[in-house]
Amino acid sequence: MSRRRHRRKNQGAVKLNVTAMLDMAFQLLAFFILTFRPMPVEGHLSLNMPPPVPLTNIATEPTVGKEGSGMIAPLHALHLFVTATETGEVAQVRLESAILSSGRLTPGTLAGIDRRLQPLFARGNAIYDRIQIEVDRDLRYEELLKLVDVCAQQKMPDGKSLGKVSFVEMRPR
């Protein structure tokens, strides 16, 4: 006896209910949009960039005006260098070649750094208009923010607070 194989002419195509899938997709989308709560920003630093000034001849050096000549002397950034320990705490804070602080940042060492920075900005002929902190890549963020707070509290000769503080990672040696 031969067995016949019955082939169905129409094996029936699988039908997907697209309406139900779209409904579920929109429900999930609405759920995630309505329940999304972004985290607050950890720290907001208002960093001011210098105004754009067109350069006509880049090869020439700017001329520094003398007092009374009507020209404004260019101001520079004060560079602080911060090295870190293996645990991420501050090992040393130095200004060019002068060491401002060694060891952990305590309220006393922060006050000492503040006292050492004040004369650099309080003079009538201050040559700095901003502070750039160069930090070791191992430094913890909270330690950096302590230094940023001290730097941002410096007073310019006109009595306004110094609002220009930036930080960059130290170049590897």
How would you describe this structure in keywords?
173 residues, alpha/beta, 5-stranded mixed β-sheet, 3 helices, 5 strands, 27% helix
Q: How does this model look, in words?
A:
With about 170 residues, this protein is an alpha/beta fold. It has a domain at about 75-170. About 25% of the residues lie in helices and about 20% in strands. It is built from 3 helices and 5 strands. The protein has a 5-stranded mixed β-sheet with strand order 3-2-1-4-5, with helices on one face. α2 (about 105-120) runs parallel beside α3 (about 140-150). The protein starts with 17 loop residues before the first helix and ends with a strand.
In short:
A hairpin with a 5-residue loop joins strand 1 (76-84) and strand 2 (90-95).
Could you state the order of secondary-structure elements as H and E?
A: HEEEHEHE
Strand order of the largest sheet: 3-2-1-4-5
Number of strands: 5
Provide the gyration radius in Å: 31 Å
The amount of beta strand, in percent, is 15-25%
